[in-house]
Amino acid sequence: MTFVNNAYAGGTSAKGVTQINIGISYSKAKILNTFYGSNEPNAGIVFSPIARIVLTLKNFSGNQLSFTYTSSVTGVRSDGLSLTAKYPVGTTVITWSSSDPCGNTGQAYSNIYVRPLNTVKFNVQYVGVTGGAATRGFVTSMLGSQITFPTTVSGVSVANGHGKFFATNAPIDNYLNATVEDAASTLRHRVAVTDTGTDWSVTVTLLSGDIINDELVDVLDWGAYVVRNVNADFDGNGAINATDGNIIIANFGLKGDTACGSSFTGSHEPIMAISVSDLVSQGLVDLVGADLNHDGWLDMEDVHMGTRGARLNRDGWVDVAVTRSAN
Q1: What would the mean pLDDT of 190-198 be, rounded to a whole number?
Q2: How many C-beta atoms lie closer than 10 Å to residue 319's C-beta?
């Protein structure tokens, strides 16, 4: 900004030009002054404004005199709050002002824009799964001080037991924790949300085995594995085999966490035995074939038979002769 004024240097009258340039730097600035909310929108943004004042004077002899110095700058926000206060969603204008010893003043403006949504980055790992590749989907929920935000993300490439970082957007809030699950095969797991200053980060490890998607690993999931439910291919190698069955055994009896803002109904305990008639009445008729000893129950005895090698043949009967144990 350039101003023309009568300047006086060393008591000598001179006609001069005073130029005041206000440069402003931000410690957490993003491109185009776009900021990302954290616990609250733009907590902790630090401004460092400096006014660079260049005085160019000509005395009566025609000699040009110039010098540069810096001066303090004051800033006023359009919402009237202090510069260090947290910035709300939307646009806040800051007016910067400074002056030189000759009485010239200058102003500059900053438009601070805070997005209504912020990026959440998820990093997912499957415990005990070390091979194969698949495209999976995830169901997440985030618990904030004011809102609960659920979302579903699909088409995530998973290989070697890891899900690549995938991202979604969430409304601005102070998020405390989040839940993540692969609805096709894992228990839901709740973890803390990390505020990185410019976005949120969620790192979670998931336990596989919940094929039925009831947040339990029990005889129902074992039954789904025995009858070759497509979601029983936990390691994504294209085959349902003993490796997948061992994952169910390793996590048998475990329970998943509740989604943010919800609760389980009933006792929500793992099922150790269920009659064939109940399977049919509950719409789980596909699991009837997992009653390997054909005693009318899908129970731990069938699980024991399966771990000892009993498998269904094409006629629905076991292809390994395993007698019922005395226990």
Answers
A1: 86
A2: 11
For 160, residues 6+ apart whose C-beta sits below 8 A from its C-beta are: 130, 131, 132, 133
Pair 19, 53: CB distance under 8 Å: yes
Per-residue pLDDT, averaged over 184-210, amounts to: 91
Q: Where is pLDDT greater, at 146 or 282?
A: 282
Residue with tokens 């709050």: 81
- Rounded Cα distance between 190 and 143, Å, is 10
Tokens for 172, please give them.
């601005």
Please answer whether residues 225 and 244 qualify as being in contact, where contact means their C-beta atoms are separated by less than 8 angstroms.
yes
Phi/psi region, residue 258 (left: phi>0; alpha: psi -120 to 50; beta: rest), is beta
Over residues 16-41, the pLDDT tens digits come to 334 445 554 433 322 223 343 333 44
DSSP 148: E
Q: What is the pTM of this model?
A: 0.68
What does the angle CA 224 – CA 122 – CA 203 come to, to the nearest 5 degrees? 85
Sort 61 into a burial class: Cβ within 10 Å, 0-12 / 13-18 / 19+: exposed
The pair of three-digit structure tokens given for residue 91, joined into one six-digit string: 């646009």
Q: In 10 A of CB 293, how many CB atoms? A: 17
The band of 192, judged by pLDDT with boundaries at 50, 70 and 90, is very high
Inter-residue contact 120 to 200 (CB < 8 Å): yes
- Please, where are the H alpha helices in the chain? 219-226, 242-251, 276-281, 300-307
Residue 195: alpha-carbon gap to chain centroid: 10
Residue 147, Cβ neighbours under 10 Å: how many? 15
Q: For residue 267, how many C-alpha atoms fall within 13 Å in the half-sphere facing its CB?
A: 3
- In the chain, the amino acid numbered 270 is P
With contact defined as beta carbons under 8 Å apart, do 18 and 53 qualify? yes
76-to-37, 79, 82, 296 alpha-carbon distances in Å: 21, 9, 8, 78
Tell me: the pLDDT tens digits for 278-325?
A: 999 999 999 998 998 889 999 999 998 888 776 665 455 555 544 444
